Amino acid sequence: MVDPKSSPQEIFNKREEFGLENSVKLLTDIVETEKDYGKRKGAVKYLGLISREVPSLKKESFFPSSFF
């Protein structure tokens, strides 16, 4: 079970354990809902790193309009 308050780095480090799809969903949820800018920025960073393993992610946009 994944702790919903996991940090982006922890999710990235455990991506094999959580599964890539679940990790992407968790990181995307952080980007879309987290109020802490630093945590959101970290989630975007780790989504970028995961996209190297999941090429279809490179076509996605992870920046909600509220991010800017």
UniProtKB/TrEMBL annotation:
This is Uncharacterized protein. It comes from marine sediment metagenome.
